Protein backbone atom coordinates (compact mmCIF):
# COMPACT_ATOMS: atom_id res chain seq x y z
CA UNK A 1 0.00 0.00 0.00
CA UNK A 2 1.24 3.49 -0.79
CA UNK A 3 1.32 6.26 1.82
CA UNK A 4 -2.03 7.75 0.76
CA UNK A 5 -3.70 4.34 0.92
CA UNK A 6 -2.38 3.87 4.48
CA UNK A 7 -3.53 7.36 5.49
CA UNK A 8 -6.97 6.75 3.99
CA UNK A 9 -7.25 3.37 5.75
CA UNK A 10 -6.43 5.00 9.09
CA UNK A 11 -8.90 7.85 8.44
CA UNK A 12 -11.56 5.30 7.47
CA UNK A 13 -11.03 3.32 10.71
CA UNK A 14 -11.37 6.50 12.81
CA UNK A 15 -14.45 7.57 10.82
CA UNK A 16 -16.17 4.22 11.36
CA UNK A 17 -15.56 4.48 15.12
CA UNK A 18 -17.01 8.02 15.28
CA UNK A 19 -19.99 6.98 13.13
CA UNK A 20 -20.76 3.96 15.33
CA UNK A 21 -20.72 6.12 18.48
CA UNK A 22 -23.12 8.62 16.88
CA UNK A 23 -25.36 5.82 15.54
CA UNK A 24 -25.52 4.23 18.99
CA UNK A 25 -26.51 7.60 20.50
CA UNK A 26 -29.55 7.78 18.12
CA UNK A 27 -29.32 11.54 17.69
CA UNK A 28 -32.52 13.08 16.25
CA UNK A 29 -32.97 15.78 13.63
CA UNK A 30 -31.06 14.68 10.56
CA UNK A 31 -33.97 13.11 8.64
CA UNK A 32 -36.10 16.24 9.08
CA UNK A 33 -33.26 18.47 7.90
CA UNK A 34 -32.75 16.22 4.84
CA UNK A 35 -36.50 16.44 4.07
CA UNK A 36 -36.35 20.25 4.28
CA UNK A 37 -33.48 20.43 1.79
CA UNK A 38 -35.14 17.97 -0.61
CA UNK A 39 -38.39 19.98 -0.44
CA UNK A 40 -36.56 22.68 -2.39
CA UNK A 41 -36.02 20.16 -5.21
CA UNK A 42 -39.52 18.66 -5.48
CA UNK A 43 -39.94 16.47 -8.54
CA UNK A 44 -36.23 16.31 -9.37
CA UNK A 45 -35.06 12.72 -9.77
CA UNK A 46 -32.93 11.59 -6.87
CA UNK A 47 -31.22 8.62 -5.37
CA UNK A 48 -30.96 7.83 -1.71
CA UNK A 49 -29.60 4.60 -0.29
CA UNK A 50 -30.69 1.67 1.83
CA UNK A 51 -28.78 2.13 5.08
CA UNK A 52 -26.45 -0.64 6.22
CA UNK A 53 -24.65 -1.14 9.52
CA UNK A 54 -24.23 2.24 11.25
CA UNK A 55 -25.13 4.52 8.31
CA UNK A 56 -27.48 7.40 9.04
CA UNK A 57 -30.98 6.55 7.79
CA UNK A 58 -32.42 8.61 4.88
CA UNK A 59 -35.53 6.45 4.31
CA UNK A 60 -38.12 8.85 5.80
CA UNK A 61 -36.91 11.70 3.57
CA UNK A 62 -36.77 9.37 0.56
CA UNK A 63 -40.34 8.22 1.18
CA UNK A 64 -41.53 11.81 1.38
CA UNK A 65 -39.68 12.76 -1.82
CA UNK A 66 -41.14 9.75 -3.67
CA UNK A 67 -44.56 11.41 -3.61
CA UNK A 68 -43.20 14.16 -5.90
CA UNK A 69 -40.80 12.44 -8.30
CA UNK A 70 -38.64 9.41 -8.98
CA UNK A 71 -36.46 8.11 -6.15
CA UNK A 72 -33.91 5.38 -6.63
CA UNK A 73 -31.30 3.44 -4.75
CA UNK A 74 -27.84 2.41 -5.96
CA UNK A 75 -27.27 -1.02 -7.41
CA UNK A 76 -23.63 -2.14 -7.56
CA UNK A 77 -22.84 -3.56 -11.01
CA UNK A 78 -19.40 -4.92 -10.20
CA UNK A 79 -15.95 -3.96 -9.00
CA UNK A 80 -14.54 -0.93 -10.81
CA UNK A 81 -17.88 0.01 -12.36
CA UNK A 82 -20.18 2.98 -11.83
CA UNK A 83 -23.40 2.49 -9.88
CA UNK A 84 -26.78 2.22 -11.57
CA UNK A 85 -29.89 3.49 -9.84
CA UNK A 86 -33.11 1.52 -9.70
CA UNK A 87 -36.47 3.09 -8.97
CA UNK A 88 -37.51 2.63 -5.32
CA UNK A 89 -40.82 3.12 -3.54
CA UNK A 90 -41.47 2.81 0.20
CA UNK A 91 -43.76 -0.19 -0.32
CA UNK A 92 -41.75 -1.81 -3.14
CA UNK A 93 -40.42 -5.38 -2.89
CA UNK A 94 -36.70 -5.65 -2.19
CA UNK A 95 -34.02 -8.29 -2.59
CA UNK A 96 -30.53 -8.66 -1.16
CA UNK A 97 -27.87 -6.76 -3.06
CA UNK A 98 -24.08 -6.68 -2.72
CA UNK A 99 -22.57 -5.71 0.66
CA UNK A 100 -25.85 -6.28 2.52
CA UNK A 101 -27.77 -3.37 1.02
CA UNK A 102 -31.27 -4.12 -0.20
CA UNK A 103 -32.17 -3.25 -3.81
CA UNK A 104 -35.51 -3.24 -5.64
CA UNK A 105 -36.64 -6.71 -6.65
CA UNK A 106 -37.20 -5.56 -10.24
CA UNK A 107 -34.58 -3.30 -11.82
CA UNK A 108 -36.00 -0.07 -13.25
CA UNK A 109 -32.90 2.02 -13.94
CA UNK A 110 -32.76 5.79 -14.40
CA UNK A 111 -30.17 8.55 -13.94
CA UNK A 112 -30.85 10.75 -10.90
CA UNK A 113 -29.97 14.43 -10.79
CA UNK A 114 -29.46 14.42 -7.00
CA UNK A 115 -27.52 11.78 -5.07
CA UNK A 116 -27.83 11.42 -1.32
CA UNK A 117 -24.44 9.93 -0.54
CA UNK A 118 -23.52 7.79 2.47
CA UNK A 119 -20.03 8.20 3.84
CA UNK A 120 -17.54 7.23 6.51
CA UNK A 121 -16.07 10.70 7.14
CA UNK A 122 -16.21 14.25 5.74
CA UNK A 123 -14.40 17.55 6.18
CA UNK A 124 -15.56 21.17 6.23
CA UNK A 125 -14.46 21.66 2.59
CA UNK A 126 -16.73 19.00 1.12
CA UNK A 127 -14.22 16.17 1.10
CA UNK A 128 -15.79 12.73 1.49
CA UNK A 129 -14.28 9.45 2.57
CA UNK A 130 -16.29 6.42 1.51
CA UNK A 131 -15.70 2.71 1.86
CA UNK A 132 -12.81 2.68 -0.60
CA UNK A 133 -14.43 1.05 -3.64
CA UNK A 134 -14.69 4.30 -5.63
CA UNK A 135 -18.28 3.56 -6.67
CA UNK A 136 -19.68 7.03 -5.94
CA UNK A 137 -16.59 8.79 -7.34
CA UNK A 138 -16.88 6.94 -10.70
CA UNK A 139 -20.65 7.45 -10.75
CA UNK A 140 -20.54 11.17 -9.97
CA UNK A 141 -17.78 11.74 -12.52
CA UNK A 142 -19.90 10.08 -15.23
CA UNK A 143 -23.14 11.83 -14.30
CA UNK A 144 -21.44 15.24 -13.95
CA UNK A 145 -19.90 14.83 -17.42
CA UNK A 146 -23.46 14.75 -18.82
CA UNK A 147 -25.20 17.42 -16.68
CA UNK A 148 -25.07 19.14 -13.31
CA UNK A 149 -25.49 16.53 -10.57
CA UNK A 150 -25.93 17.46 -6.92
CA UNK A 151 -24.09 15.27 -4.40
CA UNK A 152 -25.51 15.61 -0.89
CA UNK A 153 -23.54 13.88 1.84
CA UNK A 154 -25.68 12.61 4.72
CA UNK A 155 -23.88 11.95 7.98
CA UNK A 156 -23.69 12.46 11.72
CA UNK A 157 -21.80 15.54 12.99
CA UNK A 158 -19.40 13.14 14.70
CA UNK A 159 -18.19 11.90 11.30
CA UNK A 160 -16.42 15.20 10.60
CA UNK A 161 -12.63 15.01 10.35
CA UNK A 162 -10.19 17.92 10.28
CA UNK A 163 -9.03 16.90 6.83
CA UNK A 164 -9.89 14.09 4.43
CA UNK A 165 -6.98 12.68 2.41
CA UNK A 166 -8.08 13.20 -1.19
CA UNK A 167 -6.97 11.93 -4.58
CA UNK A 168 -7.63 13.63 -7.94
CA UNK A 169 -10.38 11.06 -8.68
CA UNK A 170 -12.31 11.85 -5.47
CA UNK A 171 -15.52 13.68 -6.33
CA UNK A 172 -16.49 16.54 -4.00
CA UNK A 173 -19.82 16.93 -2.24
CA UNK A 174 -21.97 19.96 -3.07
CA UNK A 175 -23.71 19.87 0.29
CA UNK A 176 -23.62 17.97 3.55
CA UNK A 177 -26.50 17.43 5.97
CA UNK A 178 -26.12 16.33 9.59
CA UNK A 179 -28.41 16.30 12.61
CA UNK A 180 -27.42 19.92 13.41
CA UNK A 181 -26.55 21.70 10.17
CA UNK A 182 -26.51 22.02 6.41
CA UNK A 183 -23.15 22.82 4.83
CA UNK A 184 -22.83 23.95 1.21
CA UNK A 185 -19.57 23.86 -0.72
Write the layout of secondary structure elements.
Layout (H helix, E strand, L loop, with lengths): L2 H23 L4 H10 L6 E2 L11 H7 L5 E5 L8 E4 L6 E3 L5 E3 L4 E2 L3 E4 L3 E2 L5 E2 L5 H12 L3 E5 L20 E3 L4 E3 L1
Parallel strand pairs: 1-2, 1-7, 7-10, 10-11
Antiparallel strand pairs: 2-3, 3-6, 4-5, 8-9, 11-12
Helix pairs in contact: 2-3
Question: What does this entry show, briefly?
Answer:
This protein has 185 residues and is α/β, with parallel strands linked by helices.
Relevant terms:
single chain; 8-stranded mixed beta sheet; metal-binding; ATP binding; two-stranded antiparallel sheet
Task: Summarize the structure in words.
- With 185 residues, the protein is of the alpha/beta class.
- It has a single domain (3-184), classed as 3-Layer(aba) Sandwich (Rossmann fold).
- Helices cover 28% and strands 21% of the residues.
- The strands form 3 sheets. An 8-stranded mixed beta sheet has the order 6-3-2-1-7-10-11-12. Strands 4-5 form a two-stranded antiparallel sheet.
- Helix 2 (30-39) packs parallel to helix 3.
- The longest helix is centred in the N-terminal third of the chain and has 23 residues, at 3-25.
- It starts with a helix and ends with a strand.
- Major sheet characteristics: 8 strands, mixed
What number of structural domains do the residues give? Answer: 1
CATH class: Alpha Beta
In CATH, what is the homologous superfamily?
NagB/RpiA/CoA transferase-like
Instruction: Give the strand content.
Output: 15-25%
Number of helices: 4
Structural class: alpha/beta
Radius of gyration, CA atoms, in whole angstroms: 15 Å
CATH topology: Rossmann fold
Strand order of the largest sheet: 6-3-2-1-7-10-11-12
- Helix fraction bin: 25-40%
Amino acid sequence: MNDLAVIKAEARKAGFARRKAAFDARLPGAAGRLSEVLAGHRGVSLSGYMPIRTEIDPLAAMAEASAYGPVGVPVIQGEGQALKFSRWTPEGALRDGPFGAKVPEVDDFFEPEILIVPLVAFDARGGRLGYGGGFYDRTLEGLRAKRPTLAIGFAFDAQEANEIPLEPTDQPLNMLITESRVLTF
